[in-house]
């Protein structure tokens, strides 16, 4: 399990419960960008929901930290009733002030590393239909439409699937030779 991974000035590590409020704020700000009128508030206590995800023994919550500040978060686990070699990426958010700075790609690579270590072969997620930026991001990383969950009329989410590369392949899904694996 990833406890801490340093990549340049960015640290990827496991989130801790005391960070739930900060993570909930990042989550809300990121989600607000793809709703025309801002993210719906609802009556769910998102900080408490994140505390629950962080504490859940069968889940992982990774955060990207730059200069002591959480700038990205990813939450994943095997979904109830799904095959043990399939993981679901429930949440993946980068601080809007840090978009296009490599945070998302680095955080995704850490997720893939954990999936490989956990023996996962497939990852799934759903992305809001209005979130075109995220859809393009996932496509660049090798995610494809999930053939088991085709879109239906009126769906607000698209379902995507990712083939987790084996340990001898790169985290972007491209095979890597032994000569270049350490680069």
Tell me what the structure shows.
The chain is an alpha+beta fold. It is built from four helices and eight strands. It has an eight-stranded mixed β-sheet with strand order 1-2-3-4-5-6-8-7, sandwiched between helices. β4 and β5 form a beta hairpin. The relative contact order is 0.13. The C terminus is likely disordered.
How is this fold's topology laid out?
Blueprint: E1 4-7, E2 10-14, H1 20-32, H2 46-55, E3 59-66, E4 69-77, E5 86-94, H3 103-117, E6 122-128, H4 132-140, E7 144-145, E8 157-163
Parallel strand pairs: 5-6
Antiparallel strand pairs: 1-2, 2-3, 3-4, 4-5, 6-8, 7-8
Helix pairs in contact: 1-2
End-to-end separation in angstroms reads 22 Å
SS content category: alpha+beta
Tell me the series of helices and strands, N- to C-terminal.
EEHHEEEHEHEE
Q: Low-confidence runs (pLDDT<50, min 5 residues)?
A: 171-183
- Helical content, roughly? 25-40%
Main-sheet strand order equals 1-2-3-4-5-6-8-7
Number of strands: 8
Total helical elements: 4
Largest sheet: 8 strands, mixed
Strand-residue proportion: 25-35%
Q: What does the overall shape look like?
A: globular
What's the mean pLDDT score? 85
Radius of gyration: 16 Å
């Amino acid at each position: 399990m990833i406890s801490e991974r340093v990549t340049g000035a960015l640290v990827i590590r496991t989130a801790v419960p005391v960070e739930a409020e900060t993570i909930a704020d990042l989550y809300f700000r990121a989600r607000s960008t793809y709703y025309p009128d801002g993210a719906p508030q609802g009556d769910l206590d998102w900080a408490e929901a994140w505390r629950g995800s962080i504490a859940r023994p069968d889940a992982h919550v990774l955060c990207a930290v730059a200069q002591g500040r959480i700038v990205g978060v990813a939450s994943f686990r095997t979904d109830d009733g799904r095959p043990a070699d399939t993981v679901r990426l429930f949440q993946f958010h980068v601080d809007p002030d840090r978009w296009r700075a490599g945070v998302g790609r680095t955080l995704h690579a850490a997720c893939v590393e954990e999936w490989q270590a956990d023996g996962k072969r497939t990852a799934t997620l759903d992305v809001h239909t209005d979130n075109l930026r995220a859809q393009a991001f996932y496509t660049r990383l090798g995610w494809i439409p999930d053939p088991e969950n085709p879109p239906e009329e009126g769906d607000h989410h698209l379902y995507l699937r990712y083939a987790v590369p084996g340990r001898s392949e790169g985290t972007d899904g491209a095979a890597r030779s032994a000569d270049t694996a350490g680069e």
